[in-house]
């Protein structure tokens, strides 16, 4: 049965709310005295005059708290207590004032107004108040509140609203409170920490007695289950992972609400006033977790948390409250989401600065994520022991599986946990064995088992290099191909939550909570890695439809499957260390793999995969895969068909685990084409000497198809003579046929300009083909028109035909990264291209008015960078442009190139969140590589100028600056 829920003011971690500063007490007395003086001067105090007194009092105390907090004299939790104490005095003074003003002149009214109490509930009831949070008040009345009580309640509420305060309120009798609490757990929770602020003390005492009797009669089971369900619903709404890069620090997993939930559970069961009351000597046996003593008025420890766990709880509580206060003050409202624009501002306010190569905001966010993980771990530790203390020990059932019993495990509620007498502290290998048993028998881990694993995770450090531990770990990670319960991500999550993974693979500890301050990665590094393993699990089960065109059945025929899983685990292990994380990660893999019991061959494969895990994606999206040198260079690096398969699978799972928005059919197409071409070279089927033969075959195929389309031999001969070799190798026969039709129709009608749009759902792009007279500036004009139309270019091929005409092809998507196929938008797009190329429309003026994305994204810096490479291609100079993405960026970049006399042969456009990486294959006006150092320097300077101008126009603003500008406007 639950202990009596006491009525004293409560907080998690420190002095009760009644411990107010002398300044607060003096200010409250001064306010009451000022009102008394004003009242003595005449018949009452005019309402506006009274509001003035209260406003000055409120502003003075709020300013004092903010000054002390922002000067780091007090923490967020202490500031919350002071704001609460300040509000206590204000509400109590207002009650006395309202009682006099609302009842002035009413005959027979007693000045003490019996039958009405003003009670603080919810967070305010706990004696904690954030700067812009609601003030939750319960106006407790007798069974039939009189007109006088209702008049005072109405006066107080309107007065508080006029002060600019947000008030959550209810007016109920004791019977109403008991009935509402029984029907609604949220109301019952708010009543747990009820505090008397003013009014009838005897009525409040009666309420406390009735509340406690109702709690005893109800029992703890329903309340605990309801809080668990409420938390599950909240996590589903705000994200199951605590490692989202824009977390909700109050409602998200690992946030303040999760800490409050376990506090409410403990308070309901034990009657404690703070989580630290649970600190004491704890039993070593996870099955012996009954509290040593119930918490009483003297604060006797119940022994559910160790001293170290208590320190983690205190630090998490202080950190989250301090973070919340900064967030409210910077936003100027009750903001609980830590968005990108807030992160650097608040990180700086909390003192996080650059450390080595890691910027302050990333250090700050890592501290937040580690704190969120501590809150999760505290939940795993406390909740099962609270439930056991409240509901009794779980009923152990003897398993019919003798091997399970022999291994030291048993079942309770059909969940797996250690047998009595089996201690993870003394036998740490049992922590891995129980996970393997849970997987093999498809059983859930009992919460008490998770509790024990978290408590004794440090013991797992002694298992590094242990043969059995390594074998179990690799088995949990990779499982058995085709086995229905192979789910490495599930077990990695367990190992990560409990802390075991950082003990078994020591470098893992450095990526836990590690984030990259960009909009491309939506998870921390550790969570991204686990998600990548989950995607690989799904690929093996053939559950990922949008990757089947890329990986096909490659996943079913792997000779180095275990090496692939370990490579996925380690591919980002060196993130955040500075330098090239691929190179550093490859070195780490060389050290880790042997300790996991992997062979020299497996170790070498894992290290190679980690070193080159970005190779395919960078080549597919940033290089011209129709250039023979690109393919040959790639084949020289990969060398083995098996490595090519492994690298493709690693690339796919890495991309899909970054963000749901990263993967699309166009990228899948490029990766598949790249894989096929490299595989042909590795199989000895292609070489650059066969280029002419490939061109000839492409022409023969085109001629055959055109004959079936009704083209005569003269038309076929004319079309075959138009394209150079790169054209014939760059398109498939179906596209050649479409081009032939378009060119024939244009020539027949003497049309100077033709635009054709072709949605390609299988590739998730729309192909836009422009056939017109070639001239300088054609590319950037088309790029400008597409930007005005709201299209995003993902790839482009520029071909000048032998008749002097340009045949330019663009593959586009809409702003959300999906196919653009609405007929009205395609028609508008065609018109815009014609108007721009003809000079009737200036895209630069239109682009200025386009939406540049959410303001909060401006906080993320994108340093401009231009790389020029004359070795990547035998025939072209390759220019890579890195900068902040925005509408019209490609137009400005290509315009700058055109003004320097540069001819663009192909463009490859990739975006990573707010960062754009555009790669161009270019030549000079004579059709040659650009080798002049002066010309290259001018080109680099011009492009950097465009990128810097773009960054300046999108310069980040602090939220405070943005607000000031709005107010000025």
UniProtKB/TrEMBL annotation:
<keyword id="KW-0378">Hydrolase</keyword>
<feature type="domain" description="ACT">
    <location>
        <begin position="878"/>
        <end position="959"/>
    </location>
</feature>
<keyword id="KW-0548">Nucleotidyltransferase</keyword>
<comment type="similarity">
    <text>Belongs to the GlnD family.</text>
</comment>
<dbReference type="InterPro" id="IPR003607">
    <property type="entry name" value="HD/PDEase_dom"/>
</dbReference>
<dbReference type="InterPro" id="IPR006674">
    <property type="entry name" value="HD_domain"/>
</dbReference>
<dbReference type="GO" id="GO:0008773">
    <property type="term" value="F:[protein-PII] uridylyltransferase activity"/>
</dbReference>
<keyword id="KW-0677">Repeat</keyword>
<feature type="region of interest" description="Disordered">
    <location>
        <begin position="1"/>
        <end position="25"/>
    </location>
</feature>
<dbReference type="InterPro" id="IPR002912">
    <property type="entry name" value="ACT_dom"/>
</dbReference>
<dbReference type="InterPro" id="IPR045865">
    <property type="entry name" value="ACT-like_dom_sf"/>
</dbReference>
<dbReference type="InterPro" id="IPR010043">
    <property type="entry name" value="UTase/UR"/>
</dbReference>
<keyword id="KW-0808">Transferase</keyword>
<feature type="compositionally biased region" description="Polar residues">
    <location>
        <begin position="13"/>
        <end position="22"/>
    </location>
</feature>
<comment type="function">
    <text>Modifies, by uridylylation and deuridylylation, the PII regulatory proteins (GlnB and homologs), in response to the nitrogen status of the cell that GlnD senses through the glutamine level. Under low glutamine levels, catalyzes the conversion of the PII proteins and UTP to PII-UMP and PPi, while under higher glutamine levels, GlnD hydrolyzes PII-UMP to PII and UMP (deuridylylation). Thus, controls uridylylation state and activity of the PII proteins, and plays an important role in the regulation of nitrogen metabolism.</text>
</comment>
<dbReference type="GO" id="GO:0006808">
    <property type="term" value="P:regulation of nitrogen utilization"/>
</dbReference>
<dbReference type="Pfam" id="PF24931">
    <property type="entry name" value="ACT_ACR9_3rd"/>
</dbReference>
<feature type="domain" description="HD">
    <location>
        <begin position="525"/>
        <end position="641"/>
    </location>
</feature>
<keyword id="KW-0460">Magnesium</keyword>
<keyword id="KW-0511">Multifunctional enzyme</keyword>
<dbReference type="Pfam" id="PF08335">
    <property type="entry name" value="GlnD_UR_UTase"/>
</dbReference>
<dbReference type="InterPro" id="IPR013546">
    <property type="entry name" value="PII_UdlTrfase/GS_AdlTrfase"/>
</dbReference>
<feature type="region of interest" description="Uridylyltransferase">
    <location>
        <begin position="1"/>
        <end position="403"/>
    </location>
</feature>
<protein>
    <recommendedName>
        <fullName>Bifunctional uridylyltransferase/uridylyl-removing enzyme</fullName>
        <ecNumber>2.7.7.59</ecNumber>
        <ecNumber>3.1.4.-</ecNumber>
    </recommendedName>
</protein>
<dbReference type="Pfam" id="PF01966">
    <property type="entry name" value="HD"/>
</dbReference>
<dbReference type="InterPro" id="IPR043519">
    <property type="entry name" value="NT_sf"/>
</dbReference>
<dbReference type="GO" id="GO:0008081">
    <property type="term" value="F:phosphoric diester hydrolase activity"/>
</dbReference>
<feature type="domain" description="ACT">
    <location>
        <begin position="767"/>
        <end position="845"/>
    </location>
</feature>
């Amino acid at each position: 049965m639950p202990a009596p829920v006491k009525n004293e003011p409560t907080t998690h971690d420190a002095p009760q709310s009644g411990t107010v500063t002398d300044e607060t007490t003096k200010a409250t007395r001064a306010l009451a005295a000022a009102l008394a003086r004003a009242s003595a001067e005449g018949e009452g105090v005019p309402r506006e005059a009274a509001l003035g007194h209260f406003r000055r009092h409120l502003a003075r105390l709020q300013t004092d708290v903010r000054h002390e907090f922002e000067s780091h004299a007090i923490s967020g939790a202490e500031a919350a207590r002071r704001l609460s104490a300040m509000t206590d005095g204000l509400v109590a003074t207002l009650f006395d004032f309202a009682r006099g003003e609302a009842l002035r002149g009413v005959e027979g009214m007693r000045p003490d107004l019996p039958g009405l109490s003003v009670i603080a509930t919810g967070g305010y009831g706990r004696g904690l108040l954030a700067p812009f949070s609601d003030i939750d008040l319960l106006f407790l009345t007798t069974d039939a509140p009189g007109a006088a009580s209702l008049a005072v309640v109405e006066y107080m509420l309107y007065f508080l609203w006029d002060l600019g305060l947000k008030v959550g309120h209810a007016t109920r009798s004791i019977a109403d409170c008991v009935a509402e609490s029984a029907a609604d757990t949220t109301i019952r929770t708010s009543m747990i920490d009820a505090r008397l602020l003013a009014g009838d003390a005897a009525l409040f005492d009666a309420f406390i007695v009735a509340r406690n009797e109702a709690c005893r009669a109800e029992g703890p089971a329903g309340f605990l289950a309801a809080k668990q369900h409420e938390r599950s619903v909240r996590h589903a709404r705000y994200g199951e992972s605590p490692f989202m890069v824009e977390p909700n620090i109050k409602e998200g997993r690992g946030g303040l609400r999760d800490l409050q939930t376990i506090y409410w559970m403990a308070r309901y069961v034990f009657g404690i006033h703070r989580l630290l009351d649970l600190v004491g000597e704890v039993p070593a046996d996870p099955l012996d977790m009954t509290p040593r003593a119930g918490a009483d008025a003297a604060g006797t420890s119940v022994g559910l948390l160790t001293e170290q766990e208590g320190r983690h709880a205190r630090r998490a509580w202080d950190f989250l409250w301090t973070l919340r206060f900064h967030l409210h003050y910077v936003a100027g409202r009750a903001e609980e989401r830590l968005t990108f624009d807030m992160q650097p501002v608040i990180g700086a306010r909390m003192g996080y600065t650059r450390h080595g190569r890691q910027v302050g905001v990333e250090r700050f966010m890592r501290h937040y994520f580690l704190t969120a993980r501590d809150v999760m771990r505290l939940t795993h530790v406390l909740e099962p022991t609270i439930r056991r203390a409240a509901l009794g020990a779980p009923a152990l059932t003897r398993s019919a599986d003798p091997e399970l019993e022999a291994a030291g495990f048993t079942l309770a509620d059909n969940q797996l946990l250690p047998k009595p007498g089996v201690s993870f502290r003394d036998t740490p290998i049992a922590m891995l064995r129980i996970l393997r048993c849970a997987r093999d028998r498809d059983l859930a881990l009992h919460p008490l088992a998770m509790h024990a694993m978290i408590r004794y995770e440090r013991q797992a450090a002694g298992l590094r290099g242990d043969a059995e531990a390594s074998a179990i770990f690799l088995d949990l990670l990779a499982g058995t191909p085709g086995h229905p319960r192979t789910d490495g991500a599930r077990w990695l999550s367990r190992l990560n939550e409990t802390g075991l993974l950082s003990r078994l693979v020591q470098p893992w500890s450095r990526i836990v909570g590690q984030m990259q301050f960009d909009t491309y990665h939506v998870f921390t590094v550790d969570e991204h890695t686990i998600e990548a393993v989950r995607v690989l699990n799904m690929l093996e089960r053939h559950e990922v439809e949008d990757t089947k065109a890329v990986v096909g059945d490659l996943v079913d025929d792997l000779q180095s499957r275990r090496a692939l899983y370990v490579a996925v685990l380690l591919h980002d292990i060196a993130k955040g260390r500075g330098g090239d994380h691929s190179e550093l990660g490859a070195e780490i893999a060389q050290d880790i793999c042997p300790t996991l019991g992997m062979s020299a061959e497996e170790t070498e494969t894992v290290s190679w995969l980690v070193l080159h895990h970005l190779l395919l994606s960078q080549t597919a999206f940033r290089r011209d895969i129709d250039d023979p040198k690109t393919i040959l260079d790639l084949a020289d690096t990969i060398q083995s068909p098996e490595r090519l398969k492994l690298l493709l699978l690693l690339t796919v799972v890495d991309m899909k685990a970054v963000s749901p928005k990263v993967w699309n059919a166009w990228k899948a197409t490029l990766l598949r084409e790249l894989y096929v071409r490299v595989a042909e070279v590795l199989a000895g089927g292609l070489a650059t000497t066969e280029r002419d033969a490939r061109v000839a075959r492409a022409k023969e195929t085109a001629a055959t198809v055109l004959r079936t389309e009704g083209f005569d031999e003269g038309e076929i001969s004319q079309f075959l003579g138009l394209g150079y070799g790169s054209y014939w190798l760059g398109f498939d026969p179906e596209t050649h046929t479409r081009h032939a039709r378009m060119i024939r129709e244009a020539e027949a009608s003497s049309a100077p300009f033709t635009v054709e749009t072709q949605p390609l759902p299988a590739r998730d792009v729309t192909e836009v083909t422009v056939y017109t007279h070639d001239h300088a500036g054609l590319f950037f004009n088309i790029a400008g028109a597409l930007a005005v139309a709201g299209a995003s270019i993902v790839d482009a091929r520029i071909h000048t035909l032998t008749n002097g005409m340009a045949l330019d092809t663009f593959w586009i998507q809409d702003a959300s990264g999906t196919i653009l196929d609405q007929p009205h938008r395609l028609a508008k797009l065609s018109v815009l291209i014609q108007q721009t190329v003809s000079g009737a429309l200036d895209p630069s003026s239109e682009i200025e008015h386009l939406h540049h994305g959410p303001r909060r994204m401006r906080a993320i810096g994108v340093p401009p960078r231009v790389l020029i490479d004359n070795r990547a291609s035998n025939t072209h100079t390759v220019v890579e442009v890195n900068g902040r993405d925005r509408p019209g960026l490609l137009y400005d970049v290509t315009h700058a190139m055109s003004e320097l006399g540069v001819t663009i042969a192909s463009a490859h456009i990739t975006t990573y969140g707010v960062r754009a990486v555009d790669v161009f294959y270019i030549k000079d006006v004579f059709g040659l590589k650009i080798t002049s150092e002066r010309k290259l320097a001018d080109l680099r300077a011009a492009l950097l100028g465009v990128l810097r101008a773009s960054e300046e126009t999108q310069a980040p603003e602090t939220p405070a600056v943005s607000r000031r500008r709005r107010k000025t406007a």
